[in-house]
Amino acid sequence: MRGKFFDEWVLGEEYMTPSRTMTETDVVMFAAMTGDYNELHTSEEFMKSSQFGKRIVHGLLGLAVSHGLLFRTGLLEGTAIAFLGVESWKFEAPVFFGDTIRIKVKVVEKRPSKSKPDRGIVKLFLEVIKQDDTVVQSGFKTLMIRRTPT
Q: Three-class SS of residue 61?
Protein backbone atom coordinates (compact mmCIF):
# COMPACT_ATOMS: atom_id res chain seq x y z
CA MET A 1 0.00 0.00 0.00
CA ARG A 2 1.32 3.41 -0.88
CA GLY A 3 0.85 6.37 1.42
CA LYS A 4 -1.04 9.53 0.62
CA PHE A 5 0.72 12.22 -1.34
CA PHE A 6 0.48 15.79 -0.05
CA ASP A 7 -2.21 16.66 -2.60
CA GLU A 8 -4.44 13.82 -1.34
CA TRP A 9 -4.61 14.99 2.28
CA VAL A 10 -7.87 16.79 3.09
CA LEU A 11 -8.32 19.28 5.93
CA GLY A 12 -10.60 17.90 8.62
CA GLU A 13 -10.34 14.25 7.60
CA GLU A 14 -9.84 11.78 10.47
CA TYR A 15 -8.25 8.37 10.82
CA MET A 16 -7.99 5.78 13.58
CA THR A 17 -4.84 3.68 13.90
CA PRO A 18 -4.61 0.03 14.85
CA SER A 19 -4.28 -0.56 18.60
CA ARG A 20 -1.36 -1.75 20.71
CA THR A 21 -1.22 -3.12 24.25
CA MET A 22 1.53 -1.65 26.42
CA THR A 23 3.52 -4.44 28.07
CA GLU A 24 6.11 -5.00 30.75
CA THR A 25 8.61 -5.71 27.96
CA ASP A 26 7.86 -2.33 26.33
CA VAL A 27 8.60 -0.51 29.58
CA VAL A 28 11.73 -2.52 30.41
CA MET A 29 13.17 -1.97 26.92
CA PHE A 30 12.30 1.75 26.96
CA ALA A 31 13.90 2.15 30.41
CA ALA A 32 17.04 0.39 29.18
CA MET A 33 17.21 2.48 26.01
CA THR A 34 16.66 5.83 27.75
CA GLY A 35 18.20 5.16 31.16
CA ASP A 36 14.91 6.23 32.78
CA TYR A 37 14.51 3.68 35.57
CA ASN A 38 12.27 5.91 37.68
CA GLU A 39 10.35 3.91 40.26
CA LEU A 40 7.08 5.21 38.79
CA HIS A 41 7.73 2.72 35.99
CA THR A 42 9.88 0.04 37.60
CA SER A 43 8.74 -0.55 41.19
CA GLU A 44 5.33 -2.06 41.90
CA GLU A 45 5.98 -1.79 45.64
CA PHE A 46 6.90 1.92 45.46
CA MET A 47 3.78 2.67 43.42
CA LYS A 48 1.36 0.93 45.81
CA SER A 49 1.32 4.08 47.95
CA SER A 50 1.17 6.49 45.00
CA GLN A 51 -1.89 8.29 43.64
CA PHE A 52 -2.01 5.68 40.85
CA GLY A 53 -1.64 2.57 43.03
CA LYS A 54 0.43 0.76 40.42
CA ARG A 55 3.22 1.33 37.90
CA ILE A 56 2.65 3.61 34.91
CA VAL A 57 4.10 3.50 31.41
CA HIS A 58 6.65 6.21 30.57
CA GLY A 59 4.85 9.20 29.04
CA LEU A 60 7.49 9.48 26.35
CA LEU A 61 6.99 5.81 25.50
CA GLY A 62 3.34 6.61 24.80
CA LEU A 63 4.43 9.49 22.56
CA ALA A 64 6.89 7.24 20.70
CA VAL A 65 4.34 4.47 20.24
CA SER A 66 1.83 7.02 18.91
CA HIS A 67 4.29 7.74 16.12
CA GLY A 68 4.71 4.07 15.32
CA LEU A 69 0.94 3.54 15.25
CA LEU A 70 0.57 6.51 12.91
CA PHE A 71 2.92 4.79 10.47
CA ARG A 72 1.00 1.50 10.78
CA THR A 73 -1.97 3.16 9.05
CA GLY A 74 -0.04 3.09 5.78
CA LEU A 75 -0.88 6.76 5.21
CA LEU A 76 2.80 7.71 5.17
CA GLU A 77 4.25 4.66 3.41
CA GLY A 78 6.70 5.91 0.80
CA THR A 79 5.38 9.48 0.89
CA ALA A 80 6.69 10.85 4.19
CA ILE A 81 9.99 12.68 3.76
CA ALA A 82 10.63 13.97 7.27
CA PHE A 83 9.14 14.29 10.72
CA LEU A 84 9.37 18.02 11.50
CA GLY A 85 8.13 18.37 15.03
CA VAL A 86 5.79 17.92 17.95
CA GLU A 87 3.85 20.86 19.40
CA SER A 88 1.74 21.35 22.50
CA TRP A 89 1.95 17.68 23.52
CA LYS A 90 -0.06 17.03 26.68
CA PHE A 91 0.08 14.07 29.03
CA GLU A 92 -3.51 14.01 30.25
CA ALA A 93 -3.92 10.67 32.07
CA PRO A 94 -1.71 7.71 32.93
CA VAL A 95 -1.19 4.66 30.78
CA PHE A 96 -0.87 1.50 32.86
CA PHE A 97 0.78 -1.81 32.01
CA GLY A 98 -1.75 -3.81 30.01
CA ASP A 99 -3.62 -0.78 28.66
CA THR A 100 -4.36 -0.85 24.94
CA ILE A 101 -3.98 2.43 23.05
CA ARG A 102 -4.95 3.64 19.61
CA ILE A 103 -4.51 7.01 17.96
CA LYS A 104 -7.15 9.30 16.51
CA VAL A 105 -5.58 11.47 13.82
CA LYS A 106 -7.09 14.64 12.34
CA VAL A 107 -5.63 16.73 9.51
CA VAL A 108 -5.58 20.33 10.77
CA GLU A 109 -3.27 22.15 8.37
CA LYS A 110 -1.50 21.66 5.06
CA ARG A 111 0.65 23.97 2.99
CA PRO A 112 2.90 23.54 -0.02
CA SER A 113 6.62 23.97 0.51
CA LYS A 114 7.82 27.49 -0.30
CA SER A 115 11.23 26.31 -1.49
CA LYS A 116 10.65 22.86 -3.03
CA PRO A 117 7.69 22.21 -5.33
CA ASP A 118 7.85 18.41 -4.88
CA ARG A 119 6.62 18.47 -1.26
CA GLY A 120 4.34 20.01 1.31
CA ILE A 121 3.80 20.23 5.06
CA VAL A 122 0.93 18.45 6.83
CA LYS A 123 0.05 19.15 10.46
CA LEU A 124 -1.91 16.49 12.33
CA PHE A 125 -3.68 16.59 15.68
CA LEU A 126 -3.32 13.29 17.51
CA GLU A 127 -5.18 11.90 20.49
CA VAL A 128 -3.83 8.81 22.24
CA ILE A 129 -6.89 6.93 23.46
CA LYS A 130 -7.08 4.00 25.90
CA GLN A 131 -9.44 1.04 25.63
CA ASP A 132 -12.00 2.81 27.86
CA ASP A 133 -11.97 5.85 25.50
CA THR A 134 -9.95 8.02 27.91
CA VAL A 135 -7.70 10.47 26.05
CA VAL A 136 -4.33 10.02 27.73
CA GLN A 137 -2.14 12.19 25.48
CA SER A 138 -2.71 14.71 22.71
CA GLY A 139 -0.88 17.19 20.56
CA PHE A 140 0.28 18.12 17.10
CA LYS A 141 2.78 16.41 14.81
CA THR A 142 4.07 18.01 11.62
CA LEU A 143 5.40 16.03 8.67
CA MET A 144 6.89 16.77 5.28
CA ILE A 145 5.08 14.79 2.58
CA ARG A 146 5.87 14.18 -1.10
CA ARG A 147 3.58 15.77 -3.68
CA THR A 148 2.04 13.67 -6.43
CA PRO A 149 4.76 13.06 -9.04
CA THR A 150 4.24 14.94 -12.30
A: helix
User: How far is it, in rounded angstroms, from Cα 146 to Cα 54?
Assistant: 44
pTM: 0.91
How many residues are present in the chain? 150
* Sequence ranges of the domains in the chain: 6-146
Please name the helix (run of DSSP H) or strand (run of DSSP E) that holds residue 28, with its range, or none.
Answer: helix 24-34
Pick the closest to residue 135 from 108, 77, 98, 95 (CA basis): 95
Superfamily of domain 6-146: Hotdog Thioesterase (3.10.129.10)
pLDDT one digit per residue (tens) for the chain, 150 residues: 689 999 999 999 999 999 999 999 999 999 999 998 988 998 899 999 999 999 999 999 999 999 999 999 999 999 999 999 999 999 999 999 999 999 999 999 999 999 999 999 999 999 999 999 999 999 999 999 999 887
Q: In the beta sheet, which residues pair with residue 143?
A: 83, 122
